[in-house]
Amino acid sequence: MSYCVNCGVKLNHNVSSCPLCGVEIINPADPIDQTAEKIFPQSRDVHKDSFDKSLWIKMVTTVLGLPMLLSITINTIFGNGLNWSLYVTGTLGIIWVWLVSPFLFKRSFMARSVVIDAVFLLGFLYLIEYLSHSQGWFFSLAFPIIGTFTILLLIIVILIKRKILKELHIVASIFLGIGIFCVILNGIINFHALRMLKLDWSLLVLIPFTAFALIAALLQQRRWIVEELKHWFHV
Ligand SMILES: [Zn+2]
């Protein structure tokens, strides 16, 4: 048994330098035994991604696929052709797309799954309009509302991904996005209902949300205020 001449730590037989201070160990009375078991691991274990994507997809497919098949079977046997089961299948299908789409891509999965989710949601709503014979709301309401929401979300996601938006600028852009979305939503609904471009309630949302966005952007510029607040609230 040797002790480090520099720091005094007890040394194992198989080390050629002190693991604590790095001083070279030369002890003719106790030569290095290369075969002795190392006291600390020689390689770092790479932590693998514990989430099994293919298992998740299989699980979601089974859990949602069974009631889909069941409802289609019951509807075919006891009904006059497929009708109500298409709503059930459509709903379960859209849930399947939402749950699975983020795991289908390795790169820029957020942006792609936003687009896929929106396309399938639009398809589902179109199916509802078609099946329920309640024409007149898909193209004038559902399509522009979901389209606007998707475009705004996509812009924010891409700007975050490209690291153009960071920290509190992300919060600011979300506030601003909500404000803009409400204005467009208000316009679309009023145009659908009254056939005229008119804004009312959305301005009550836009003004405070723009103010929140400005505060967040200002705080990002003055990081010391955030640090001071964190200090006060012990975060
Ligand atoms: Zn030492």
SSE topology sketch:
Elements: E1 2-3, E2 10-11, H1 53-78, H2 84-100, H3 109-132, H4 138-161, H5 168-194, H6 201-221, H7 223-232
Antiparallel strand pairs: 1-2
Bound molecules: zinc ion (ZN).
Descriptive report:
The chain is an all-alpha fold and 235 residues long. Among the domains are: 1-40, no CATH class; 165-235. It contains 7 helices and 2 strands. It has helices at residues 53-78, 84-100, 109-132, 138-161, 168-194, 201-221, 223-232, and strands at 2-3, 10-11. The protein has a two-stranded antiparallel ribbon with strand order 1-2. A hairpin with a 6-residue loop joins strand 1 and strand 2. The longest helix has 27 residues, at 168-194. It starts with a strand and ends with a helix. 7% of the residues are buried. Bound molecules: zinc ion.
